[in-house]
Amino acid sequence: MEDMNGNGIGNIVIEELDPTFLFTWKGTRKSQQDEDAYRSHDHLELAFILSGSGKYRFEEGIRPVQEGDLIVINAGVKHQSLYSPESELPATEFFVGASNIHLPGLPENSLPVPEGKHILHTEGELRQRLFKICSSMMAENAVCRQGRYFMLKAYLMQIVLLVIREQCEPMEKMKGCSFESPSKTYVVEQIVNYFEDHYSEKISLDQIAENMYLSPFYISKIFKSETGDTPIRHLINIRLEKAKELLEGEYQGSIQEVAARVGYDDAYHFSKLFKKRFGISPSQVRKKA
Predict the structure, then answer these.
(1) Which of 62, 69, 95, 217 is spaced 20 to 30 A from 132 at the CA atom?
(2) CB 286 within 8 A of CB 246
(3) How far apart are alpha carbons 49 and 218 in whole angstroms?
(4) SS3 state of residue 63
(5) How does pLDDT run across 86-102, given as a tens digit for each residue?
(6) Which region, left, alpha or beta, applies to residue 116 given φ > 0 means left and ψ of -120 to 50 means alpha?
């Protein structure tokens, strides 16, 4: 537990935690690696699964990993990230390397792991925070600005402390309360509000995901679980409803101009979507109005 000043976690004092940042790397496994890729290091390695799924080989066997998993590879642990051809979406991993980590009761360059295993399954706020940190590290690593190493080290320390807190300070969920669902609801509400405010603009799910520090796959998954619809289909419905309001109202612009006002450059494509949605063409709606 932390002391009154927030300076300690368990018997670990933050002032004594001074890791050395070594590297970051992002990649997607697209083929099977050679057998000699099964190896160990003398440094700590953390691998966060940004999207997709795959497998990891450890001495005790092969274990599946998926989006949101954090693989803690302590010094001396033999491991190998495996290509999984059966995966619908191959795992994209973000690696961080570190050394000079000394925690009481653990070997050098080691972090606590759940029940002696290597994979920390994350969800809710923890998962979103890790996505955000990894995205920030990628952005920082892409530019050469003053203090770059120390910024990356600061992000590394956040990940290390999150892992320690998750293992040393487990938070028990209160009976009758769910902390994951409100988090999902909040994300979906933010996306819907963005659609409502920006439906007339070019909208990219990838850009929304990047701004929210989440993956497009995860956003699509939780959006459908909360609304029963995909983000793109929801956006299309908003645009078509807005177009119908324009056509039934006092707006006198052409069908091309109506399409443009709700985010479509192609009036023909817009008309097809409109008729499929309402069973009547935009021009027919205008005539009735």
Answers:
(1) 62
(2) no
(3) 12
(4) strand
(5) 877 888 999 999 999 98
(6) left
Helix 216-227 / helix 180-198 crossing angle, nearest 10 deg: 100
> How many CB atoms within 10 Å of residue 231?
23
CA 159 from centroid of its chain's CA atoms: 15
List b or e across 99-137, with b for residues whose CB sees 16 or more CB atoms inside 10 angstroms: eebebeeeeebbbbbeeeebbbebeeebbbebbebbbbb
The residue ranges of DSSP E strands in 196-283, in sequence order, are none
| Helical spans, DSSP H, in 142-179 | 148-168
Q: How big is the CA angle at 221 (ends 219 and 226), to the nearest 5 degrees? A: 95
pLDDT in tens, 26-39: 888 776 655 457 88
CA angle centred on 23, ends 107 and 7, rounded to 5°? 55
Gyration radius (Cα) of the chain, Å: 24
Measured distance CA(134)–CA(194) in Å, rounded: 24
3-class secondary structure per residue, 90-137 = ECEEEEEEEECCCCCCCCCCCCCCHHHCCEEECCHHHHHHHHHHHHHH
Is there a contact between 21 and 152 (Cβ–Cβ < 8 Å)?
yes
Q: CA of 17: how far to CAs of 153, 158, 163, in Å?
A: 11, 11, 13
